[in-house]
Amino acid sequence: MFNIALFGPPGAGKGTQAKKLINKYNLAHLSTGDILRDEMSKGTELGNKVKEVIEKGELVSDDLIVQIIEKKMQENTEASGFLFDGFPRTYIQAYILEGLLLKMNTSLSCMISLEVPEDELMKRMLERAKKENRSDDTKEAIQNRFEEYKSKTIPVANFYKEKGIYYPINGVGTVDEVFDRIVNTIEETLTEEWMNVVLFGPPGSGKETHGRKLAEKYNLIYISMGSRVYEEMNKGTELGKRAQSYIEKGDIVPDEFAIQVIEEQIKTNPNARGFLFKGFPKTVIQAYILDGLLRKRESSVSCVFNLHIPTLESVKRLTSRGQTEKKRPYDRNINTIIRRIEQFEKLTRPVLDYYRNKMLIYDIDGMGTQEEVFQRLSDNLDRAFKELR
Fold first, then answer.
1. What average pLDDT does this structure show over 266-274?
2. What pLDDT is stored for residue 178 in this prediction?
3. Residue 386 confidence (pLDDT)
């Protein structure tokens, strides 16, 4: 998901630029003012609460604003991301937005701030007041709005500057000139976005075969928990010895092993475009762990590819592999194969539900030739890249 906050003082042209950005990047427009008016006009429960507050001459609380914004976010699941216009307005709301996006397993990609000199803003606002016959927009009233903006929103700017995602844009010029500056900045930030892919599927579904090829094709760092386990086992390390008993029984290795492997891979690849995780996470707890590891890098899981094949096909493939040079310790007998499939159904299958609730799942038919399955994966990864961008 690609999420933008559009920032700037009254008269900076946020509304005009917002419309163009929404069309270009297929974003859902979340304007607090528009949303509040829409809820009131529809007479919804939230809208009626807002109306009561406004009629009393009071300010709408953060609690109500958050409820309304979260509702709108949940209603726009088909969008490639969100454009926040007029939110966050305060330091507190900046933290609230972080929490809302974290709940959706995403984050704010950039804050675009339209920078316009105050004398130019005053000129624009007075001209607009004349055109729209707004007698309440006097020079003094506009100046008060500027002062309120500066006092409340400078801390918001500092919040995002500290996160390294605050981008000031020269807002003086024609609409198209300003829009081109915004787009150029956004395109630069997109190249910095990580693409983190989880390749999911039952034992024998072809995750390793396709995972390596996908990582190479899309320039992602391939992280295979199974391969790392075998490396440690072959080296005879303490970790390898501890993991061996789990592997030979067809069980899942302890979480601390997985954390150590993934942290090491992320740290040693600081310039990576992203990662492809094969064989991890295997449990819902490990899914939480992966979220935490990526969050430390201001990133998250981008998409999950679910290779599905029938259980009988899993047994056939693993049994056949057990007769070749590519056999694994857990391919040696039917009891271990069945144990692995049982472990997958009991512990790993719920991971699919975890990611489906986050709307990250791409279901892929794992039956057919390797070329056919890989093409399906590639087509869907291309789609995922477009939706992220």
1. 79
2. 96
3. 65
pLDDT at 61 over 90: no
What pLDDT band is residue 383 in, cutting at 50, 70 and 90? confident
Categorise residue 62: left if φ over 0, alpha if ψ from -120 to 50, beta otherwise. Answer: alpha
Q: What residues contact residue 317 under an 8 Å CB cut-off, 6+ apart?
A: 204, 309
Q: Which amino acid is at 277?
A: F
pLDDT at 265: 79
* Cα–Cα dist 222/275, whole Å: 6
> For residue 29, what are its two tokens?
């427009």
CA distance 1 to 389: 7
Residues 6+ apart with CB under 8 A from 286: 255, 258, 280, 351
**pTM (two decimals):** 0.58
| Region(s) of the chain under CATH 3.40.50.300 | 4-190, 197-388
For residues 273-278, average pLDDT: 89
How many residues comprise the chain?
Answer: 389
Q: Which tokens belong to 202?
A: 């039952």
Residue 196: both structure tokens together: 């983190």
> Which of 317, 314, 342 lies closest to 327 in space, CA to CA?
317
Smallest Cα–Cα separation from 304: which of 258, 267, 257, 352?
352
Kindly report, residue by residue over 83-121, the tens digit of the pLDDT.
Answer: 998 889 888 899 999 988 888 777 888 999 999 999 999
CATH number of 197-388: 3.40.50.300
Per-residue pLDDT of 173-192, as tens digits, reads 999 999 999 999 988 776 66
For the domain spanning 4-190, the CATH number is: 3.40.50.300
3-state secondary structure 217-286: HCCCEEEEHHHHHHHHHHHCCHHHHHHHHHHHHCCCCCHHHHHHHHHHHHHCCCCCCCEEEECCCCCHHH
Q: Which residue from 88, 47, 90, 48 is spatially nearest to 71, judged by alpha carbons?
A: 47
